Amino acid sequence: MEDQEMQLKVRRVTDKFTESMYVLANEPSVALYRLQEHVRRSLPELVQHKTDMQSWEEQSQGAIYTVEYACSAVKSMTNSSLCFKNIDGLLRQAISLKEQISTTQGRRKRTMDPGPMKEGGEKHSSGM
Hints:
Blueprint: H1 2-79, H2 81-112
């Protein structure tokens, strides 16, 4: 009886040992297979996400450049307000001088040649 019991226990131990060895021998390959399957399934999606992100980055960089350019334009406009005030003053001065010149020339024409006018408003010319 002891012999049979001992053989049964030895058989159980060897079976368990064999099963453990089988699992240990095959487990890394199963894990690598599952890992490879996971990579194969998820890689195209990851590549698509990467290209989308690169596209968004390019668009964002363009928008950032545009905003920075607009900000610098606004800053330069605020800095140029003094120039615009100077231009406004010079234009007003020029308009005033033009009006003075026009009124002075109008007086000169009236005072220099009060000659007789023909019918129809033409000046009478003498000698030609």
